[in-house]
TrEMBL record:
Region (Disordered): 1-20, 121-144
Family: Belongs to the bactofilin family.
Protein name: Polymer-forming cytoskeletal protein
Coiled coil: none
Species of origin: Maribacter flavus
InterPro entries: BacA/B (IPR007607)
Length: 144
């Protein structure tokens, strides 16, 4: 009847497929997903995923985002909680509050947020822009 390649997929099998909000699309509301999410349009609401969130160059999110990893090329305003790596591309514009484990910032990115690193409540508040730590040791941040 169906070969393995033609067999229809169930919802559990496609749970790992990325979701996408295309350019010129506006959504107002909350999104909960186990899969990765790419935003190239506008989202006014919250995103919670156990995957990765990508905000494309034309993408914009205003709200709260909770995810494992995030790559941002577009704009974000709100509360950003990334349990692993947040990567800001040169075109990224971030405003609000950010909590991350690891942060990578390309030159040119705008980072106007208070930022907590290391997974704990301790960390440097940074309302005026990103300034890298002068700590040259390769040790993880420690929460007090």
């Amino acid at each position: 009847m169906f070969s393995d390649k033609q067999k229809p997929r169930t919802m559990s099998e496609i749970g790992g497929q990325p979701n996408r909000i295309e350019k010129n699309t506006k959504i107002k509301g909350d999104i909960i997903s186990e899969a990765d999410f790419r935003i190239d349009g506008k989202l006014d609401g919250n995103v919670k995923t156990s995957g990765k969130v990508v905000i494309g160059k034309d993408g914009y999110i205003h709200g709260k985002v909770e995810c494992v990893n995030a790559d941002i090329e577009g704009s974000f305003n709100g509360e950003l909680l990334v349990s692993d790596l947040l990567s800001l591309k040169s075109s990224a514009v971030i405003e609000g509050t950010v909590s991350v484990s690891k942060l990578a910032v390309e030159p040119g990115a705008t980072f106007n947020a208070s930022c907590t690193m290391g997974g704990g409540k301790a960390g440097a508040s940074n309302a005026g822009g990103f300034k890298p730590s002068m700590n040259t040791k390769n040790e993880p941040a420690k929460a007090s």
